[in-house]
Model the fold of this input.
Amino acid sequence: MGRMSKTDTVAEAEKAESKAEPKVSGSKAHGATEAAAKEMAASDMKGTAAPSPKFDNMHLWNKLKRTDPKATKPFTRSGGFRGTQIDPTWRLQMMTEVFGPVGKGWGYEQVDWTIAERMVFICARVWYVDPETGEKCFTGPQWGGTEMVRRRNGIEAPDDECFKMSMTDAVGKCLVQLGLAADIHMGQYEDSKYREESEAFYAAKANPDLQPAAIAAFEEEVRKRLNACLDLDDLEEVWRSGVGTRLREIGAIDRAAQHRITGLFAQKKAEIIKREEGGDDGLEAA
Done:
């Protein structure tokens, strides 16, 4: 079957989405210009340009790359090709977790479609709102294709979900560009040890005691208990009260928090040792 139909592209829609820069007038404009001039002068006096803010280009990729083993299953295609299938609903869940509800924090749109060789092809792209800058961004377009007719029990019949599956295929390919389930596409998932780490990561992520608010409360509790420590024995008692075990659990989901809390112990230990050494020196001098 040849090409039947095709939608128009969204090139004109993209032009309409662009926003003009807001105008600043009056005293506000004068104040802004004056402030900018002072900043430039100060920078020239120092002989160096003003430092630009740091931006982690891998931030979103790293948040999306690890795949939940429960959302996968192996598959085999004709010809012996084997791979890992990812649950489409899990993809939507991860995007909602990072960017917000579909249609508000992220979404997707059809760019083009066509029918050829008894298959339906859909071209789509994904948009999302950057959580840090609020900027609306787009992935590159990707095509997804599905057969329109499937053979079941030796009988050919139309597949009424071919359009939906083609869109799901296209959107999934777009999300890979953001890093979603990148570990599978990069071959990391084939390592059994990596899969075990992923299982531990998502088990910890589902634990109410390891949610951000709970971790923050635990960190504050540790801080208060350390402030009350007078010597190394007190410090050891705090550590053995279950803090070490809890920190190992926190490390599976939030390494930064684990390092912060561990750093509190190191800092308190250094303070106690310094104080005790100072007291010894004082006694010897007397």
Residues 255-285 form the longest helix (31 residues).
